[in-house]
Specification:
Blueprint lengths: L12 E2 L15 E2 L12 E4 L5 E4 L2 E4 L2 E2 L13 E2 L13 E5 L9 H4 L2 E2 L9 E2 L7 E2 L7
Antiparallel strand pairs: 1-2, 3-8, 4-5, 4-7, 5-6, 8-9, 10-11
Length: 143
């Protein structure tokens, strides 16, 4: 169990950036993380093992390449780097870096660190909030 600042968690995932090589294909970068075994968070997988992640000037960079994030309603208004978590900034083997879609108010990896693979507990397939957007989560997002 990964812990930073006393936080431990479990996660469930969807919205893809995870490949076959990591045995999580189809877990489109959304995760449920649990602080205490009863809680769950849904987050987006941004960093895979071996990646370096940086948030700067309202953009997210994976290995120095900016990523398109059409799903965000607001760009991040903070600067952050995975070097805050490890000296070389590399996501360790067996771990992932996750960020919430509400980047400016999200309790995620930039706060509590990397997520161990064994804490990914499922795949988010249904949106139930907000009520005007209840329905299935697109398994092939267009971003």
């Amino acid at each position: 169990m990964q812990s930073r600042g006393g936080v431990s968690f479990r996660m469930c995932c969807t919205k893809q950036r995870i490949s076959d090589a990591h045995n999580l294909e189809g877990y489109t970068s959304r995760l449920c993380a649990s602080r205490q075994e009863k809680d769950r968070f849904i987050k987006r997988v941004i960093g895979l093992p071996g990646d370096r992640i940086e948030v700067k000037n309202g953009k997210v960079y994976i290995n120095a390449k900016v990523i398109s994030e059409k799903y965000l309603s607001e760009a991040p208004n903070y600067n952050w780097s995975s070097t805050a978590l490890t000296p070389d900034g590399i996501v360790p083997e067996g771990h992932y870096l996750v960020l919430g879609d509400n980047r400016n108010n999200s309790y995620d990896s930039h706060y509590w660190g990397f997520v161990p693979k064994d804490k990914i507990i499922g795949k988010a397939v249904l949106r139930f909030w907000p009520f005007d957007r209840v329905g299935a989560i697109d398994p092939q997002p267009n971003y």
